[in-house]
Design goal:
Layout (H helix, E strand, L loop, with lengths): L3 H15 L4 H8 L3 H8 L7 H11 L16 H29 L2
Helix pairs in contact: 2-3
């Protein structure tokens, strides 16, 4: 079972990297030490709610996103969800292609 600190650590690292920031850059912008950010990302520290809000604001995300759980790709509902998305993309692409061809043939 994955714990809440693990979820926070993984998401913090993911959002920081998506912003193209190093731990040092995030720490500087959030006005905390690089060591503190590293400790959160290694599950050794757990920030207080106010600090979580501040870090999220620094990353320009909503605080709840630091606790989102990525779905298990083996979960039946996740597989169904992905299949539906794939089918919808195919239907949309076919409809767009037909519309473009219709317009070109007029």
């Amino acid at each position: 079972m994955i714990g809440i600190r693990d979820i926070l650590a993984a998401n913090l690292k993911e959002f920081r990297r998506k912003k193209g920031m190093t731990q040092e850059e995030l720490a500087e912008k959030a006005n905390v030490s690089t060591h503190y950010i590293a400790m959160i990302e290694t599950c050794k520290k757990y920030p207080k709610p106010k600090m979580l809000e501040h870090i999220a604001q620094t990353l320009e995300i909503e605080p709840y996103k630091l606790f989102r759980v990525v779905s298990d790709p083996n979960d039946p509902f996740e597989r169904l969800h992905q299949a539906i998305i794939t089918d919808m993309k195919q239907v949309i692409n076919e409809a767009v292609e037909k519309a473009v061809n219709f317009k070109l043939n007029q």
